[in-house]
Amino acid sequence: MSSDRQQEHEQAGTGGDEIPGDEYLSDEPGDELDEFLDSDDRSRKFLTTYVLECFGRERRGAAVNRHINEWLVTHSLEMFPSIADADYYGEVLVRKLSDESDAADEGDKEQRTQRAEASLPGDDGWVLSSLKDDAEELDFLQHGATVEDAVTLMKEKNRTKLPLFFSENDRSTLIGTVTLSSLTFEQTDATSKLVEKATVRVPVVGTDEKLFDWIPSILSHGFIYGKNQSGEIVQIYTIYDVATHLNTIAAMFLRANEIEELLRQILSRVPDPELKRARSNAKNLKSIPLDQEGKKFLADSDLSSSGEPDVVQRLVDSMMFADYMKCIGDREIWEKFFTSPQLMGASKESCIRSLNDARLARNSVMHFKRENSIEKLIPSFEALAVWLRKVAKHASAS
């Protein structure tokens, strides 16, 4: 990192969006990104933290995410997954756009920005690291600490469990986990050795693993550890983290469902012809008049969750399960994007039937219908998800 960028990085502190504006964002990439731009390589992987560091930040936020996406567009690059969705402790793939893509996108910056901000469908999703804020510190103990040291640190950090490493400089050598209950409710005296209390063993998995694949293990063990690309344990993911994450999702879903039910109740009084007329008059969200005179309309910034001007939505982003089924059912799309010797395992019929199950289950949940047994459909969803991951991975490698 250059001296100017280092100074800028120090001024920015922990980054994020705590400091308003883009004045602390670096316009220059790091040496490795520079070297990649000048090389003949079509793609290369970079640590997520390194990419953020190149732009003067330690954590993600709307400002730095936008800045990185704009830089990608300027240099005819695309990133998978997008910087906003990437595993904080993992890697992103930066790929140069082909000559054909460059020609097709000439003069269409919105489309290219959109491609840079989007990741391959089904290839990322929520990962374990999404349970924690970027760079949240992992508290731990090291070999040689006393029982008193452990109790003091737990009280200070408000922790009920702490990992015990052989050395603070080597977090890949986990001895075990010390729990507060083992120190307070079991027989513990001044001569007790802390290493004898580190008996809890739980899975240690990559922070880029799929979140929902490991929720059962977290619920079963109470927690699991997350390791980065170097094999170092960098996070602990607990039932509390899962509960907080899912509670947020559930709260949004329940509120959205209540609003939808109320709107349906009110709009049921409007004659169908008037509903059809109103729906056809508004071509998109930005064409909805905000005043009676029809002079004010929603802007791009209103439609973006970050409050910043957003790119034009891709058609695929507005699709529902019924639309997916229609597209996959198309003979040309199926043969071109879903068939290959490497993608054996799912027929067109099983894929469409499983998507239809997902459509029915989603509708049942969204409208609180209890007559359908959604649990019986889960195995088919899981099988479909595994196969679609292979399709997405195959597409990204092509």
TrEMBL record:
Acidic residues biased stretches: 19-38
Pfam families in alphabetical order: CBS (PF00571)
InterPro entries the record matches: CBS_dom, CBS_dom_sf
Region of interest (Disordered), residue spans: 1-38, 100-121
Bias type Basic and acidic residues, positions: 1-11
Ranges where the CBS domain occurs: 142-183
Protein name: CBS domain-containing protein
